């Protein structure tokens, strides 16, 4: 590991919630959003979460000349053979709203009985020491649930209103942010990634 | 997990040693080499080990219509800022022999003192349930060592004659195959991958 503590890390995301969460765990590294460097988003052409996360991290590392963290995530529904998967954010088309995507998902699952509506949120996070790092640190989080037949709750975003969380007996959109962050695919991936980065630093 | 035990898995490699090793651990799945299906090798255009492993697994899964396992591996040398990395097998040029690659590595490290010749073999193995699997199972193995200043030993292949293994006090090419397989980056990745595949099957 050639990068040291106090070295800045760029985050290939403009989401202030994500930045705060990562900063809290990786306290010894200042985390800066790529927007501070006017980085233009890269096209997510990968067919897997990990390929898309690497594309985003590489783009940020290249433009900012800093180590970079990126994530890619989505919803995988068994009855739809894994859809919407890597295109979760644009399931109903490019520029689709969360509502459009949820509506399409509910239509596709119309008539599918409860026990066959199993699904999971998946998040893959990567850390690249530089744009040409051949061996990114990779961490994955999986959050198992089931797709409801109508939307409930006001929190979160994306598919949260139709994602039933069995261990909480409510939809993801009914969970307070702190509870969701502790359980969610993204929270799990982040905890694993930061532990793996610290291992790599210590090596 | 929609694939069941007894389901064949194709291996994106023609190496009989790798096939035997994987078959021994994943006993409930017949492992078949992609050569049985006349699969044409895909070009390794990735800049990371995991991207190349995914390219190979996707290619095999697509052509064989079966779940697929692939790996990509290489040598990462600190004093060379990570080279030869993903181009380890063609470090001295396309079609280079093991000897050409080793000679180039020794030239590049000429004069670098022992304590700065740290290096590691890295292997990333992936399992894809089908060619469009958005979330491959990914396992990594790392084998730490140091680059010698001359080649020794007759076993193994690639950079084994110049890779000093501290815990065995000899070069990788001086280890019997069984010892190497138990310690090596590839052995570690394979053990992790098979454990993760079994977890996914059980889920």
From TrEMBL, chains A, B:
CDD domains assigned: HAM1
Recorded superkingdom: Bacteria
Residues the record lists as binding Mg(2+): 43, 72
Reactions mediated catalytically: ITP + H2O = IMP + diphosphate + H(+); XTP + H2O = XMP + diphosphate + H(+); dITP + H2O = dIMP + diphosphate + H(+)
Any GO MF annotation of the entry: ribonucleoside triphosphate phosphatase activity
Cofactor note: Binds 1 Mg(2+) ion per subunit.
Cofactor: Mg(2+)
Active site residues according to the UniProt entry: 72
PANTHER family: INOSINE TRIPHOSPHATE PYROPHOSPHATASE, INOSINE TRIPHOSPHATE PYROPHOSPHATASE/HAM1 PROTEIN
Functional note: Pyrophosphatase that catalyzes the hydrolysis of nucleoside triphosphates to their monophosphate derivatives, with a high preference for the non-canonical purine nucleotides XTP (xanthosine triphosphate), dITP (deoxyinosine triphosphate) and ITP. Seems to function as a house-cleaning enzyme that removes non-canonical purine nucleotides from the nucleotide pool, thus preventing their incorporation into DNA/RNA and avoiding chromosomal lesions.
NCBIfam families: RdgB/HAM1 family non-canonical purine NTP pyrophosphatase
Subunit structure of this chain's protein: Homodimer.
Protein name stated in the entry: dITP/XTP pyrophosphatase
Biological source species: Methylobacter tundripaludum
């Amino acid at each position: 590991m050639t990068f040291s503590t106090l070295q800045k890390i760029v985050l290939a995301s403009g989401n202030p919630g994500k930045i705060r969460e990562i900063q809290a765990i990786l306290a010894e590294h200042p985390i800066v959003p790529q927007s501070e460097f006017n980085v233009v988003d890269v096209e997510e052409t990968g067919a897997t979460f990990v390929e898309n996360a690497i594309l985003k991290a590489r783009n940020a590392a290249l433009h900012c000349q800093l180590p970079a963290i990126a994530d890619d995530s989505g919803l995988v529904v068994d009855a739809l053979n894994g859809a919407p998967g890597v295109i979760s954010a644009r399931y109903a088309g490019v520029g689709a709203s969360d509502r459009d995507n949820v509506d399409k998902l509910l239509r596709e699952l119309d008539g599918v009985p409860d026990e066959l509506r199993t699904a999971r949120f998946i998040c893959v996070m990567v850390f690249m020491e530089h744009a040409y790092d051949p061996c990114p640190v990779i961490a994955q989080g999986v959050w198992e649930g089931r797709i409801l037949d109508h939307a409930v709750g006001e929190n979160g975003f994306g598919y949260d209103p139709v994602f039933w969380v069995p261990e909480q007996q409510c939809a993801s959109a009914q969970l307070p942010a702190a509870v969701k962050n502790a359980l969610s695919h993204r929270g799990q991936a982040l905890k694993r990634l930061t532990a793996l980065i610290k291992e790599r630093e210590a090596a």
